[in-house]
Amino acid sequence: MRRNRQTDWSRRLVAENRLSVDDLIWPVFVRVGHGLEEPVESMPGVFRHSVDRLAEVVGEARDLGIPAVALFPFTEPELKDATGSYSERDDNLVCEAVRAIKKDVPDIGVMCDVALDPYTDHGHDGVLEDDRILNDESVEILVRQALAQARAGCDIIAPSDMMDGRIGTIRRALDAEGFENVQIMAYSAKYASAFYGPFRDAVGSSGTLGKASKSTYQMDPANTDEALRELALDIAEGADMVMVKPGMPYLDIVRRAKDAFSMPTYAYQVSGEYAMISAAGLNGWIDRDRAMMESLLGFKRAGADGVLTYFAVEVAKRMKG
Ligand code: PBG
């Protein structure tokens, strides 16, 4: 076995998987402000940008060949309420960001998260009644949120809320309003995970959550077959692309998803995964660059067609260099 591993050229020749810049989706945090580049404390190297900075920041990603960005808003506390009503407004921050990018950097894909957690004062992805998250009532709001994003010019609607039936309902609403070309990437197998911690800091949604638990809508990390049922439903309801989230602890799900459905399949290397690699790197405990590249190659090996990763720009620069 070692004969093929002797030299760099031979190792390259026998390599089975390769990461390309075309595999990367870059999540970008947006916040109200001017010339803002605000560090996210728990994610060293990640910033919140104001809309006026997006032409430059997203322009660089486009120049590097990154196909798409995923936008996440930091919502100021005074704009939050129990039903996340700010999410439905055509003049909300995400819609402003989409319009700015579509104007200044038209040739990059723009994806928007559909969920209520950045917008609700309790931090849940849906609306509450007696400490329960209501399903269909939440879906109605999510539909209006998705339509606002589509009107702003969003290319890919990405529901991450994990309410039942939302993909079909959003698809029908998009079609009815003339947005039949807007794509849907479903966060289909999204687990109730500890690895989202730094993200909640980044978007300011570390709300109280109260007695209700995200485990009543996000998946149990113990389950695999259930992920396939979630995927089957979202695909039947009209998802164009599917996602598994988090990434590294769920590579088995990525592989099963790809094998079972042959859909465009993405993994989200989430905030906690980024934070772990960054923190260990900063401490000199691991080689940050190598760990970053190795972790992303793992997604390719598992069958992912692409990865949402906070490392996207760094990786793209490295591959170009
Ligand atoms: C919103 C959403 C979350 C993430 C993406 N969309 C947080 C959550 O569900 O609690 C997490 C992304 C990350 O950790 O990088 N529903």
Write up this protein.
- The structure is a single chain.
- 39% of the residues lie in helices and 18% in strands.
- It has 321 residues and is an alpha/beta fold.
- The protein has one domain: TIM Barrel, CATH 3.20.20.70.
- Helix 3 links the parallel strand 4 (68-73) and strand 5 (109-114).
- Ligand PBG is lined by residues 113, 115, 117, 125, 160-161, 196, 199, 270-271.
- The site of ligand PBG has 10 residues, from loops.
Separation of the first and last Cα atoms: 31 Å
Count of extended strands = 12
Strand content: 15-25%
**What is the C-alpha radius of gyration, as a whole number of Å?**
19 Å
Q: How would you classify the helix and strand content by structural class?
A: alpha/beta
Bound compounds, each kind once, are: ligand PBG
- SSE pattern, N- to C-terminal: HEEEHEHEEEHEHEHHEHEHHEH
Shape: globular
CATH class: Alpha Beta
Biggest sheet details: 8 strands, parallel, barrel
- In the residues, how many domains can be counted? 1
CATH architecture title: Alpha-Beta Barrel
Largest beta sheet: what is the strand line-up? 1-4-5-8-9-10-11-12
Considering the protein shown, what is the CATH homologous superfamily? Aldolase class I
Number of helices: 11
On the 0-100 scale, what is the average pLDDT? 97
Stated plainly, the CATH topology is called TIM Barrel
Q: Which regions are unreliable across 5 or more consecutive residues at pLDDT < 50? A: none
Helix content estimate: 25-40%
